[in-house]
Amino acid sequence: MQSFSDPVGLDGSKIDTIDDHSVTGDPPGTTRPPGRPGRRPPAADSLPVVAGAAVAMAGVGAALALADIGSPLRAPFTLFFLLVAPGCGIAAALRGLDPLSRAVVAGGGALAVDLLVAQTMLALHNWSVRGGVVAVGAFSLLFFLLAHGWRHRSRSTGSRTS
């Protein structure tokens, strides 16, 4: 399975050239990612940039919805926020899964959070766009903080026992 930091090609074949072994001194049969020796693959270099752009886009979507600004970008950016924010919170708790499974489960969980927030607000006759964005943001922050605290707690208890 291809991941963002995997040096294996999309078809599953390993990338191996004679020039890489002669330059690095690695024994034959050892594979390295293409490019300069000792460097990460180019896809791994652009991942933080893409993540930063996604966070900015989600933040703009939340701000446009909360400020009630009429813009053509309001609907797609707010939808992006409503799907990505809970997805990232849920994905933070699923660090043990492979990237594809984590993305699928986080996407399904994000959709479930959005639907549960909307259903609850409709059942209470308290529906508003601003309230929905705030509620989804609060649940997302809660998921992320719980996952972070859980990971931090498990590290500290492991170091105390040894």
Automatic annotation (TrEMBL):
The keyword Methyltransferase does not apply. Signal peptide: none annotated. The chain crosses the membrane at residues 46-67, 79-97, 104-125, 131-150. Residues 13-23 have a biased composition (Basic and acidic residues). Residues 1-44 are annotated as: Disordered. It comes from the Bacteria. Keywords: Membrane, Transmembrane, Transmembrane helix. The keyword Lipid biosynthesis does not apply. This is Integral membrane protein.
